[in-house]
Amino acid sequence: MTAYSELSAHFGRIAALSNAVGILQWDTETTMPKGAAGTRADSMALLHVLRHGMTTEPRIGDWLADAEADGELGEWERANLREIRRLWTVETALPADLVEASSKAVSACEMRWRQARAEADFAGLLPYLAEVLNLQRQIGRAKGEKLGLGAYDALLNDYEPGGRSERIDALFDDLAAFLPGFTQDVLALQAQRPQAPDPQGPFAIEKQRALGLRMMAALGYDFERGRLDISTHPFCGGADNDVRITTRYDESDFAKALMGVLHETGHALYEQGRPQAYLNQPVSQARGMSLHESQSLLVEMQACRSREFITFAAPLMRETFGGAGPAWETEAVWRRYTRVEPGFIRVDADEVTYPAHVILRYRLEKALIADAMPLSELPAAWNEGMASLLGVTPPDDRLGCLQDVHWPGGGWGYFPTYTLGAMTAAQIFEAACKAEPEILPSIGRGEFSPLVGWLRANIHAKGSLLETDALLTQATGRPLDASVFKAHLRRRYGGVG
């Protein structure tokens, strides 16, 4: 076997192990009985240690050196070597005992978070979260020493390869300066119109699920390779060719679950569209989380809050729930789905206020990783930030700093990719609609194949063939440009170009 074929076979086995981890993680979040938490934590820790050991196998360095000298390899194989080297470099920075300790701490913290969130009990979560944070700092420092980065940028690099907080700071400071004034302008514009009435529930969960499944099918989700379930926090997970999504239901408001389904379906379409020829290789993986979040936000925000989508969806909503009257008219539905209203919950936020939720979390997690703020002060700092950025103060920590699973789940460095993803989504959707003018009219008929086909060819099927900026430039003609996102917001919510 050649050095490249040795590497390919080895990372194929790592992918098989990762698939097992993915299914176990999905089960943990959806169906595992609480009493199995300790046993599951031990199993997950062992699998993480085994995967780490395989990824840091000493022979990988020799294989890489020999394969990189092979002049016969093609474009995809060379990109695969680049991704393998990136993973190997990062993983060899971590000792196995740190990987095991982090996995166990995350498992314990995630389980305690579910109870703490339900009871608005930050104090009960604090010791668990403190242990996760301590280990994340250690991981960030270890990776940073290997990569020549600060601890936060080393963690960010796991989710956004090549991403740097210096660039994010500039983008987010610009948005933080733009959004408050723009939000006030939009709220003033809304106040000049009668508010669309809300439909009155309750909305049976069975019917909400049926509507979600119908929308997933319209978008092109492959049910032969995935499923829809319920979890405390919506997510997309599972394994290669087994892409599972979840949502959560509220019988008083069906829009929350529906938008959660649409968002996670965007993620799932990306996963289901990855290049099959290299599916078990690093080069097939999605190109970072800003692009992944761009695909979910492109579906949820760009496509499924468009007038065209609402024209298609409003009659299905009426049919599903037996709705009648002014609240169910297409114009009323459109106005509700584009209503701007500062609120407490990130996943329920409108397009205009959503970035403020992310900017807050980004600033807080940077401070916490740098040990510039005691973890015990997180609730107060969170509430202060919400008041400053959004003009609202959560009444309790369930609606405040306990609402997201990311920090208990070890996802430090993830949050900025949401707003980077929103900017990227606007840019990709604009490029897609210019390239395929039939996209929006087709959405109005419930036909998403022109949009998904363009995304398949230009984003999904590329995997990690290109670096993020190169892929975005190839697809849209330029690297990330925040002005596109601002222009989109002005058109949709401010009535100007």
Reconstruct the topology from this structure.
Elements: H1 3-30, H2 37-55, H3 59-68, H4 75-91, H5 96-119, H6 122-147, H7 151-159, H8 165-191, H9 205-219, E1 228-230, E2 236-239, E3 242-247, H10 254-272, H11 289-303, H12 307-321, H13 330-337, H14 354-369, H15 378-390, H16 416-435, H17 439-444, H18 449-458, H19 468-476, H20 482-494
Parallel strand pairs: 1-3
Antiparallel strand pairs: 2-3
Helix pairs in contact: 1-2, 1-3, 2-5, 3-4, 5-6, 6-7, 8-20, 9-10, 9-12, 10-11, 11-16, 12-13, 14-15, 14-16, 16-20
What does this structure look like?
The structure is a single chain. By secondary structure, the chain is mainly alpha-helical. It folds into two domains: 3-159, no CATH class; 165-494, Neurolysin, domain 3. 64% of the residues lie in helices and 3% in strands. The protein has helices spanning 3-30, 37-55, 59-68, 75-91, 96-119, 122-147, 151-159, 165-191, 205-219, 254-272, 289-303, 307-321, 330-337, 354-369, 378-390, 416-435, 439-444, 449-458, 468-476, 482-494; strands at 228-230, 236-239, 242-247. It has a three-stranded mixed β-sheet with strand order 1-3-2. A hairpin with a 2-residue loop joins strand 2 (236-239) and strand 3. Helix 5 packs antiparallel against helix 6, helix 6 (122-147) packs across helix 7 (151-159) and helix 16 packs across helix 20 (482-494). The longest helix has 28 residues, at 3-30. 41% of the residues are buried.
**Which architecture of the largest domain would the CATH scheme give at its second level?**
Orthogonal Bundle
CATH level 1 name of the largest domain:
Mainly Alpha
Q: How confident is the prediction overall: mean pLDDT?
A: 96
| Gap from first CA to last CA | 58 Å
**Uncertain runs:** none
Beta-strand percentage range: under 5%
Write down the overall geometry: globular
Question: How much helicity do the residues have?
Answer: 55-70%
DSSP E strands, number: 3
Could you tell me the radius of gyration in angstroms?
Answer: 22 Å
